[in-house]
Each structure stands twice: as C-alpha cells, then as structure tokens.
Amino acid sequence: MLGLRVRPDNERQPAEVAAVVDEYTRECLALKVDRGITSEDVINTLAELFAMRGVPRHIRSDNGPEFIAQTLRRWLKQVGVGTLYIEPGSPWENGYAESFHGRLRDEFLAMEIFEGVRDARALTASWRDEYNAQRPHSSLGYLTPAGFAAACAASASAKASAPAAHAACGEAPCS
User: Could you tell me the pTM of the whole model?
Assistant: First the structure.
C-alpha cells in the first residue's frame, strides 16, 4: 500500500490516492481517492478486501502516517496480519509497487484533468478496471492481472476439491 497526492484542477486542496496491489497477481485491488486518507480509511478499505478475498499473512507498505498509525497496527494484529514496512529511501524493497505507482502517475494521473474529487474517483475506478482486465503482463505469462487471479483461484479450488471428490466416491486421493 502506498499513497500519492494529486491536485484536481478546479480545487485548491490536493487529493490523495491510496493503492492496494496484490504482489502475486499484480491486481490493483483498490485505489482510494479522497481529500485525505486516514488510518480508519485504510482499515475500512482493507476490511472490505479481507472480506472478499481472505486475510493475507502480511501487508507491505511505505511509512506514511496513515499506514504506520497505531490504530492500524493494532487492527492488523487483531486480524492476524503481519506488517512489512519499506525503509525510507529504499524503493527497491518494493519494486513492483514502485513500478505500479510509476505507471499510475505517468500513464494516468499526469494525463488526466480532474474536475474534482468525484471526477477523480470515477476516472480512477475506470483506469483500475482497465489495468486489471485489459493489460497483459509478461511476468504473468501475458495474462491480465484479473485473468491470472482467476486462474490461480481455479487452480486452488481444483486442488482443494480433489480430495473431497475422491472421498465422496470412495477412492484414495491422487498424489
């Protein structure tokens, strides 16, 4: 998770963008846009993602105040998630996220004119959908992040159901 600041053209106060990216599937799971993003906003976003996708073992983030707040640390500990923080000035510790944020900045944020936060949210959601569903990645065997995630889920489901299917028909599971 990392945060970025953008300035909608018709407004004086900048907005912030917080991104949640799955390091394995490369999916952008969330792009939250708001005037300011607090640790409570991060908790709410993560709680929604955990409910939909399960609880990860660890979360890697930068050291922004919304990510290192005690409230967030306590909540993550309660739900059993470890934290991995990127050392300040050490972007190589999170190369994929740095690459993602570079694309987000260069290909989207720098190219769009936002009329306000509402407009930024709508355009950001559209960019996220396009990024996940229409952009193949060489590191994923030229699948899109959404396609790769679906293939992983199908594979995990098949592996998990194989012993149950064998047990149901009285056979020993395959090795």
Answer: 0.79
